[in-house]
Every structure is written in structure tokens, then in C-alpha cells.
Amino acid sequence: MSNLDLRPQMSVCGGRAAVAAEPVRELLTGRQVSLGESTEVRRLLPNLGRRMIGAWCFVDHYGPDDIAKEPGMQVPPHPHIGLQTVSWLRAGEVLHRDSLGSLQTVRPGELGLMTAGRGIAHSEESPREHARFLHGAQLWVALPDAHRATEPAFDHHTALPVVTAPGLRATVIMGELAGAVSPGRTFSPLVGADLLLDAGADVTLPLDPSFEYAALTMSGGAIVDDVPLVPGSLLYLGCGRTGLPLRADTATDLVLLGGEPFEEKIVMWWNFVGRTGDEIAAAREAWMTAPERDYGTVHGYAGPPIPAPTLPSVPLKPRGRSR
């Protein structure tokens, strides 16, 4: 998934200095961003108040959108470095193409995991014949320095482990939860899980107190640690939790994100995660002048690739991981 903001700001994220050692309840609201030709998303991370959750550095929530008479998602070829993209759908389907030659339709309950590493290009689109509704989340994971130049890869997993409790069904998308381990490849300690709560559910989910966590509300109306949430909101929960109380009066879908606080400082701009502004500038220059050399070519998408926005004229300003 691309960041199609025409004027993206360069920012420094990461580091442990601003990570609360104790539980918190920090409610974050997203901003509306156009994605491609006809898709609007709620961008929840990076946020003015919070820029990372463990290694998770980007969160978009979209839908549910009625696209029966629309083209749906149409994101032309674009580049990535230094990160993984995690595609998670609750309704609809997305056709993924990349410069490795991958061609894969990702459907609800399946993990589409792309490791950009040293560089990759991809596109995403709703198939010509598609379901009426499109609803999902697009997530990025920052790669630690030791692995950010790894070879690019795309993995598609249709069978993911499930943890159950009365009123709860948790699908482990990435990492580990309650002893269940996702087949998705990770490069730092983290977790991503889809939590389906039945109406009337009242359960406590076991957590790792060394992780920081957040809960993204996909649908319904959960009460997370006594905080009522509406769809499209993100509740940052901090560290130091051994369990998370969850309640729901109606059927509800949450995505739990967590991980060990990311110690390294990263520089994020457009679709790149690096360590310096110069590295980001070089990645942009490569996309604009010699994309085949550094990113390869995406074949089969009916349209030209996305040009990179202009870099900010102001120097890089470190902002830290929170306000």
C-alpha cells in the first residue's frame, strides 16, 4: 500500500525515551487521505500524538465501502524500502502485483506480507469482478537496521492460527499471541491479531508486559480497558500490561497491534523507511531516474507508475515517537 500524500513530511520516529513503562489510554483519531482513484482511508499512524507501536509505523483503515459500481482500490506501481507491508481484509479482495513477478489475490482472513528490504515496487487493485464491499487495514512494519537491506519477498498465507475464549476468536496475523505463532516472517518481537468479539463478550486477553500495544477498531463498538471505541479509532495502551479487558455489546472486530518498543530511530517519508534524510533522497532519486535498477518493474498494471512527490524544502526535523 502506498502513501499517496502529495506533500508528505519527513519525520524521525522510534527510540524508547517517550515510551511509557506503565499502561495508558491514549485515543487517536485518524485523518482522511485519498488513496488511488476512488478509495478514502483513515490514516491513524503516524499521528501527531503517536508515531510507532513497537515496529508498527503505519496504519490505514478503509471501508466498509460499497464499490459495486466503482473500480474500488486502484493504486499504481510505487516503491518501498526498509519495511514490510501487511495487508489485512475483512471484506472484498485486493490483487497484488510486484516487481518480483508475484500476482496474488488477497482475500479476507488471509495474510499478504511483502518484505521490501533493499527495494521493491508493487501495485494494488480491486479485481475487475469484485465483491460489493471493501474493508480492511494496511499496515507497515519498520525493519531493524540489521535486516533492512534484506532481499525483497512476497508471502501469502491462507492458514493462520486462531486463539479462542468464550466470546472471542483471535486470528494471529503476525508474531505470537497466547502461544499461537503466525507463519508470517518477522524481524523484531511484535504481534498483530484480529479479534472478533461476540455480542455480550467480556474477556481478558493475555499480553506481554514488555510490549507496547494499541487497539484499532474495525467495526462494532468495543469497550477496551473501560474506553468505548468507535470504528476507525486507535487506542494506544502503552506497556506494562499482563492482560487487556475487552467487552462488547454488539459483534465487534478489533485489530491488536503490539511489539517491543523500537529502539532505533527511523526516518519515514512517502513510501520509504530509512535512517537519514540523505538515504531517503537517494531512494527517491533512484525511483525517478533508474527504477528498474533499484526496484524492478511491475508488469500487468494498466497504467503508469506513481511519481515521487517533491522532497520538503526544510531540513529534517527530529520529532521522536510521540508528541
From TrEMBL:
Top-level division of the source organism's lineage: Bacteria
Annotated region (Disordered), positions in chain: 302-323
InterPro entries cross-referenced by the UniProt entry: Pirin, Pirin_C_dom, Pirin_N_dom, RmlC-like_jellyroll, RmlC_Cupin_sf
Domain Pirin C-terminal: 193-288
Pfam families: Pirin, Pirin_C
Residue ranges annotated for the Pirin N-terminal domain, each copy included: 41-141
Similarity comment: Belongs to the pirin family.
PANTHER family, per the entry: PIRIN, PIRIN-RELATED
Protein name, UniProt field: Pirin family protein
Organism from which the protein derives: Streptomyces silvisoli
